[in-house]
């Protein structure tokens, strides 16, 4: 758990929340008994495949959907007890950015950013100052008088972020905000979101089906499956030690440090020894253990793997061929198991 969040205030809390939609074919349980706590000032990811319930979670947070049961506390207020008018007022403290930008094509960049301020009753001079401040923050002050169709996708999303920040919300919801962007533009937008979080102190909830997005900027992440929280933890823990099957599938789409069945078939054909995969993380004494292999009459060869870094820590895995007498290989594997997770994958 990151130290800066250990005792932080929970700005969003889901307590046994269920959301059921009625349909001609029968009730659909979109969210099924979720307990979730998001800390003030963090970037929290919610990830899941289509139908997992992540978009419903967004709409429950901003009060566009009402929970069937349970409670949702946003910045100290249980929004499930509010009237529609009260929820509308509460939404002013929650910014929102979308996959398709949702900009007004007939308004300039400045006009788009000014719109929520106008709705909130700001005076013209105050609106102009705030718009200039926000466009400068997102790097688009020189495009204030351009129209959305004159902008790139990344620029449109920057306008969307500026508009979402107009009324100084405490929470920013990013619903698949980079799905329509190319990889380079996605990275630019994610850097901007991290700047929003770090410099303005805004709590950001990132809804996505791409774990690479969470890896880039997230502090913690909840993995949803069938309307339930399958797993929750720091981004580092989710990447390095996924417990749920759905989490492992997500991680495998981002990390390619473990051999797939085709790789294993090739490895078995080329390397006749015992094949094991060793988990790598800071503090593991893998090197010192492998250094003793020769004394046991064992040699090793790295046949697959990769090591990366996340949140200033190293992680990954290496697949090794171990060759030598059975008792020596068994002893080496046993010693490796004392310092890290070992999976024998070649049998």
Give a verbal description of the structure:
The chain has twelve helices and 14 strands. With 347 residues, it is of the alpha/beta class. It folds into two domains: 3-254, P-loop containing nucleotide triphosphate hydrolases (Rossmann fold), CATH 3.40.50.300; 261-344, ACT domain (Alpha-Beta Plaits). The strands form three sheets. A six-stranded mixed sheet has the order 6-7-8-3-9-10, with helices on both faces. It has a four-stranded antiparallel sheet with strand order 2-1-4-5, covered by helices on one side. A hairpin with a 2-residue loop joins strand 12 (299-310) and strand 13 (313-323). Helix 3 (109-119) crosses helix 4 (124-137), helix 3 (109-119) packs parallel to helix 5 and helix 5 runs parallel beside helix 6. Residues 1-7 have low confidence and may be disordered.
How many helices?
A: 12
Number of domains: 2
Spell out the helices and strands N to C: EEEHEEHEHHHEHEHEEHHHEHEEHE
The gross shape turns out to be: elongated
CATH class descriptor of the largest domain: Alpha Beta
* N-end to C-end Cα span: 37 Å
Features:
4-stranded antiparallel β-sheet, Alpha-Beta Plaits, 347 residues, 6-stranded mixed β-sheet, 29% strand, alpha/beta, 12 helices, Rossmann fold, 2 domains
């Amino acid at each position: 758990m990151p130290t800066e969040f250990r005792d932080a205030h929970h700005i969003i809390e889901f307590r046994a929340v269920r959301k059921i939609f009625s349909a001609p074919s029968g009730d659909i349980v979109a969210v099924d008994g979720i307990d979730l706590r998001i800390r003030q000032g963090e970037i929290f990811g919610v990830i899941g495949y289509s139908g997992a319930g992540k978009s419903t979670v967004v709409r429950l947070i901003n009060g566009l959907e009402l929970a069937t049961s349970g409670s949702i506390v946003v910045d100290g207020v249980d929004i499930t007890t509010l009237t529609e008018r009260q929820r509308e007022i509460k939404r002013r403290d929650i910014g929102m950015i979308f996959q398709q930008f949702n900009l007004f094509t007939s308004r300039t960049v400045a006009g788009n950013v000014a719109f929520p301020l106008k709705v909130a009753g700001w005076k013209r001079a105050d609106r102009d100052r705030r718009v200039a401040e926000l466009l400068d923050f997102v790097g688009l002050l020189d495009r204030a008088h351009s129209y959305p169709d004159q902008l790139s996708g990344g620029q449109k999303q920057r306008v969307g972020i500026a508009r979402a920040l107009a009324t100084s919300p405490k929470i920013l919801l990013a619903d698949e905000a980079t799905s329509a962007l190319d990889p380079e533009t996605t990275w630019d937008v994610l850097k901007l979101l991290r700047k929003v979080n770090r410099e303005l102190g805004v709590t950001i909830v990132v809804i996505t089906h791409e774990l690479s997005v969470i890896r880039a900027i997230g502090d913690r992440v909840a993995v949803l499956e069938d309307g339930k929280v399958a797993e929750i933890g720091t981004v580092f823990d989710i990447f390095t030690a996924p417990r749920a099957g759905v989490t492992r599938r997500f991680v495998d789409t981002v990390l390619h440090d473990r051999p797939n069945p085709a790789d294993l078939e090739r490895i078995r054909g080329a390397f006749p020894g015992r094949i094991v995969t060793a988990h790598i993380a800071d503090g593991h004494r893998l090197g010192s253990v492998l250094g003793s292999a020769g004394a046991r009459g064992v040699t090793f060869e790295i046949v697959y793997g990769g090591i990366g870094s996340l949140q200033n820590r190293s992680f990954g895995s290496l697949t090794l061929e171990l060759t030598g007498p059975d008792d020596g290989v068994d002893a080496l594997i046993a010693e490796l198991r004392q310092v890290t997770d070992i999976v024998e994958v070649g049998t």
